[in-house]
From TrEMBL, chain A:
Lineage: Bacteria, Pseudomonadati, Pseudomonadota, Alphaproteobacteria, Hyphomicrobiales
Ranges annotated as spanning the membrane: 12-38, 73-92, 104-126, 154-173, 205-226, 257-275
Protein name as it appears in the record: ABC transporter permease
Lineage: superkingdom: Bacteria
Species of provenance: Roseibium polysiphoniae
Keyword Transmembrane helix: yes
Keyword Cell membrane annotated: yes
Places the protein is found: Cell membrane
SUPFAM superfamilies reported in the protein's UniProt record: MetI-like
TrEMBL record, chain B:
Annotated Pfam families: ABC_tran, TOBE_2
Protein name: ABC transporter ATP-binding protein
Domain of life: Bacteria
Domain ABC transporter: 9-239
SMART domains associated with the record: AAA (SM00382)
Family affiliation: Belongs to the ABC transporter superfamily.
Organism of origin: Roseibium polysiphoniae
A GO molecular function held by the record: ATP binding
Keywords: ATP-binding, Nucleotide-binding, Transport
InterPro entries on file: AAA+_ATPase, ABC_SmlMolc_Importer, ABC_transporter-like_ATP-bd, ABC_transporter-like_CS, Mo/tungstate-bd_C_term_dom, P-loop_NTPase, Transp-assoc_OB_typ2
Length: 289, 373
């Protein structure tokens, strides 16, 4: 009996930090957000329960257009990160020799040692009107006047892909690593060409890694703030910027909370749809990669 | 050499080097249609490399491979009609049994109904008609084995390569699968090339066996030939169990003679057909345990035949294994000799008993040492 109690106590103690973390840092703030977002300001310091903040969002096309724009850009970034990251991951896991593999992995990690902010400023140094690329192109005679590469969507997408691609590569490498080479050879041996082997064997095998990489990358991108603001400027129209605006500039916490909650709901919906379409479950993607 | 269509596979002097390592060394052989051919050799002797060259995953550094009389050098693996059962089977875990078998048919562009018919047909033939909808992890080891073979056989290959496919199975199942593989080969009537380091697998199943050592073929022959008339010391030592001595020839001619082992034991031998053995040469002598008679009690004193070698010794221990029981005898010169005995359960040999071992010179195979082997 006593043994059992001790065991239970140990379990409780081990579980406590995790439970507290979930409760205090994730559940409580979100509950607070939901409650906050459901308050309507009817007069100074007078609040009423209601869906006014959400209705405001629905009535104002700029708001939901920004959300949709953020969502589609994040999807684009996810797709690009997958397209670029998959060959890299495949090379690291299957083609590179044992020693090269470690070096390549390290190379992928290096950008992560530098903070987001510094990286974004790095891009700015390269891309601004008086930046390295513009100057070089003028010097080489390819262009006549200086060109501003910053503050457009393409730059934002490139910057975001650069920031998040590591989170695509890591799960992909770990799933591809677990794949027996003879499986690929069997695919060829039974008559498949390179494309068939990729489509019917490698990609299905790597699916858990692909899905979990995509989830992480999509979440990170949709919720990112620094990169779109710094590289896209004021007119990047990123949804997190709207949230920031509501909280900080307008001091409208109620609607900021509603926006934050909407972003969470929207990204969750997209991920749910993605899981449904790819026929994966959250459990097996997270467990496998 | 003119292409001969009765050979499913011909290899002429194929060689493969990985940098400085010579994995396969000018190997030549031909395999007639519909036979079961085994390549037997110790670990690391180049069996897998040879097979991968036939399948097209490695490019030979020299020589030619012909399938059905046509050279396949430069043909990519997916264009060769050679299918392979991998060591760990390499079934696709994300597909069910039906999809696994249908994969190859899809690649070659068969239509849906035909695929369905063929898959069910082949499942019928491997006696697993009901597993089409199962996932791979729901199969037993032996069933996986058969699915892996079916997945290849459904494509009607010219040659089926099997790389130690029984390696991952437990002993009981291995025994059962040996017989099953042989039956499957008969049923499909396709040429099987079977790689193994387990001599009993090779001997039981094959029509022909090639013994491979350090990238070379030592001997190709039927299992009986290899067992009873080995050409080299390596084959004699590797195929079947043997007592092995090294010694020096005391006297001898082309037919046989007398040698003395390093321990000082005189042994009469018959010269192995292929090699000339002259006096003073260092030789390896092999005697199989089943050809050694164990004499006990009064029999010990009876004179042995003139062509027989006999040695007195003391029973060191009994290795009981039912019908394959052995006795270990410590001879007068100190070394241990293994002999087959029949143990009946009463009045058997006991450790410490004095015995005499005797064997005919015909059973003492002798090979000259040319270089250190
Ligand atoms: N890709 C490679 N690069 C370098 N050396 C290799 C390579 N593949 C095989 N070898 C070497 O070639 C030799 C033969 O290897 P192989 O795999 O053919 O042996 P094997 O007979 O199949 O052995 P096992 O029974 O253990 O599977 C070995 O010495 C091995 O180290
Ligand atoms: Mg091998």
């Amino acid at each position: 009996m006593q043994q059992k109690d001790i065991k239970r106590l140990t379990m409780l103690l081990l579980f406590a930090p995790f439970a507290l973390w979930i409760l205090l840092l994730i559940l409580l703030p979100h509950i607070g957000m939901v409650i906050l977002s459901l308050r309507e300001k009817v007069a100074p310091r007078v609040y009423e329960f209601g869906f006014g903040n959400y209705i405001d969002f629905a009535m104002e096309p700029i708001y939901w257009n920004t959300l949709l724009r953020t969502g589609s850009m994040a999807l684009l970034v996810t797709a690009l990160a997958l397209l670029i990251g998959f060959p890299i991951a495949y090379y690291i896991a299957k083609v590179a020799g044992f020693r090269t593999r470690g070096a390549l992995f390290l190379l992928c990690l290096i950008p992560l040692w530098v903070s987001d902010l510094i990286r974004a400023f790095g891009w700015i140094l390269l891309l601004r009107e008086t930046g390295v690329i513009s100057t070089f192109l003028q010097w080489s005679g390819a262009i006549d006047g200086p060109i501003e590469f910053l503050y457009n969507d393409a730059t934002v997408v490139v910057g975001l892909v650069y920031t998040v691609i590591l989170f695509m590569i890591v799960p992909l490498v770990s799933t591809l690593d677990g794949m027996d080479n003879s499986m690929i050879e069997a695919g060829y041996n039974l008559g498949g060409n390179g494309f068939t082997v990729l489509r019917r064997i490698i990609v299905p095998y790597a699916m858990p890694g692909i899905v979990s990489g995509c989830i992480v990358v999509f979440m990170l991108t949709a919720g990112s703030y620094l990169t779109p603001i710094l590289l896209g400027g004021k007119n990047s129209s990123w949804f997190t910027e709207q949230i920031y605006d509501q909280f900080i500039t307008r001091f409208n916490w109620e609607s900021g909370a509603a926006f934050g909650f909407l972003l969470l709901a929207f990204t969750s919906l997209v991920i749910w749809l993605g899981l449904k379409l790819s026929g994966q479950t959250l459990a097996n993607t997270v467990a496998k990669s | 050499m003119t292409p001969n269509p009765t050979f499913d596979l011909e290899c002429n002097n194929i060689a493969k080097s990985f940098g400085k390592v010579r994995a396969v060394n000018d190997v030549s052989f031909t395999i007639p249609s519909g036979s079961f051919f085994s390549i037997l050799g110790p670990s690391g002797c180049g069996k897998t490399t040879l097979m991968r060259m036939i399948a097209g995953f490695e490019e030979p550094t020299g020589g030619d491979i012909k399938i059905k009389g046509k050279s396949v050098l430069g043909t990519p693996p997916n264009k060769r009609n050679v299918k392979m059962v991998f060591q760990h089977l390499a079934l696709f875990p994300m597909m069910n049994v039906y999809e696994n078998i249908a994969y190859g048919l899809r690649c070659s562009g068969h239509d849906k109904d035909e695929i369905k018919r063929k898959v069910h047909d082949v499942l019928e033939r491997i006696a697993l008609p009901d597993v089409a909808d199962r996932e791979i992890h729901q199969l037993s080891g032996g069933q996986k084995q058969r699915i892996a073979i079916a997945r290849c056989m459904v494509l009607d290959p010219d040659v089926l390569l099997l790389d130690e496919p029984l390696g991952a199975l437990d002993l009981k199942l291995r025994e059962a699968m040996k017989i099953e593989l042989k039956l499957l080969q008969h049923q499909f009537n396709t040429t099987f090339i079977y790689i193994t380091h387990d001599q009993s697998e090779a001997l039981v199943m094959s029509d022909h066996v090639a013994v491979m050592n350090k990238g070379d073929f030592e001997q190709i022959g039927t299992p009986q030939e290899l067992y009873h008339r080995p050409n080299t010391a390596f084959v004699a030592g590797f195929v079947g169990d043997s007592n092995r001595w090294t010694g020096r020839v005391k006297s001898g001619d082309a037919t046989g003679g007398m040698a003395e082992t390093d321990q000082g034991l005189p042994i009469k031998f018959t010269a192995n057909g292929q090699s000339q053995i002259s006096e003073g040469e260092t030789v390896d002598i092999f005697v199989r345990p089943e050809f050694i008679r164990t004499l006990r009690g009064a029999d010990r004193q009876s004179p042995v035949e003139p062509h027989e070698t006999s040695i007195d010794g003391v029973v060191d221990s009994l290795l009981f294994n039912g019908a394959n029981s052995r006795v270990l005898v410590r001879g007068s010169t100190g070394q241990l000799i293994e002999a087959d005995v029949t143990l009946t359960g009463s009045g058997d040999l006991t450790p410490g008993e004095d015995v005499r071992l005797a064997w005919s010179s015909e059973q003492a195979t002798c090979f000259a040492r040319h270089e250190a082997s």
